[in-house]
Design a protein that fits this description.
The chain is built from 9 helices and 15 strands. By secondary structure, the chain is α/β, with parallel strands linked by helices. The chain folds into 2 domains: 3-160, Response regulator (Rossmann fold, 3-Layer(aba) Sandwich); 163-266, Arc Repressor Mutant, subunit A, CATH 1.10.10.10. The longest helix is centred in the middle third of the chain and has 14 residues, at 146-159. Bound molecules: calcium ion.
């Protein structure tokens, strides 16, 4: 699949914007048991004013069986989110009418359960942090590969089906007994210090979502915390080491992804 959001292909130039609030439904029914057909609230609202990017996103998502709605500006996004109650919103932050961060905040106020993934320019870490603080669950930087975006979309819609059941928080091969404060990884118990356990529980409860360093420090350490996050890095390293992962190599496959300038994400399997 192509990369989207970098340059327009020649055939995209001069494309006609065919209107606001366009709704595109899947051409065929999604296979039984897929997220698209099994859940209510599994629809997606794409908020994107760039016609080429929006068309690529809507076309791909529709082709994968998702009921997809396209909003070309912030006001339409809020209207669609209210009427369609999507499971997920893909939100471009640079919109012609409203500030994308403000749209994010209003979407979150409208529906505490909707998954919000912001689309932003690469290296725009301030926007990402602001967006996450405004209630976004995750972000994707432009240009992005459609295959990667689809994987992220599926993970988020899947996550909304997961739950903390019977005092056990399970993410892939990690089984956290929150009552007994014990952790098993692939069946083998690992020994965590108190704060490492608290950190793991917080990350696992937000599995699949990007969480900022500031939010982790506030919620795991101290609500009035200010200053260095070196302690956080050390605890992340300890968790990775106890998971048997390579410490010090952020590019190695890991359950905990380092999001440079932003924070961390505990990956869904
Ligand atoms: Ca834009």
């Amino acid at each position: 699949m192509p990369t989207v959001g970098s340059e327009r292909s020649p055939q995209d130039r001069g494309a006609v914007n065919d209107g606001q609030n366009r709704t595109v439904r899947p051409p065929v029914r999604a296979p039984a048991g897929s997220y698209a057909s099994a859940m209510t609230g599994s629809g997606i609202v794409v908020v994107e004013d760039d016609d080429a990017i929006g068309r690529a996103l809507v076309g791909t998502l529709t082709g994968q069986g998702f009921t997809t709605h396209w909003a070309h500006d912030g006001a339409s996004a809020l209207t669609l989110a209210d009427t369609e109650r999507p499971g997920l919103v893909l939100l471009d932050l640079g919109l012609p009418d409203l500030d994308g961060i403000e749209v994010c905040r209003r979407l979150r106020a409208l529906d505490p359960a909707v998954r919000i993934v912001i689309l932003t320019a690469r290296h725009d870490e301030v926007d990402v942090v602001l967006g996450l603080d405004a209630g976004a669950d995750d972000y994707v930087t432009k240009p992005f590969r459609l295959a990667e975006l689809l994987a992220r979309v599926r993970a988020h819609l899947r996550r909304s089906e997961t739950a903390d059941v019977g005092g056990h928080l399970v993410v892939g091969d990690v089984d956290i007994d929150t009552g007994a404060r014990r952790v098993r990884v692939d069946g083998a118990e690992i020994d965590l210090r108190a704060r490492e356990f608290d950190l793991l529980v917080f990350l696992a409860r937000n599995a699949g979502s990007a969480v900022t360093r500031e939010r982790i420090m506030t919620e795991v350490w101290d609500e009035h915390w200010f200053g260095s996050t070196k302690t956080l890095d050390m605890h992340i390293s300890a968790l990775r080491r106890k998971f048997g992962e390579t410490v010090g190599d952020d590019d190695a496959p890991s359950r905990i992804t380092t999001l440079r300038g932003v924070g961390y994400r505990f990956e869904l399997p």
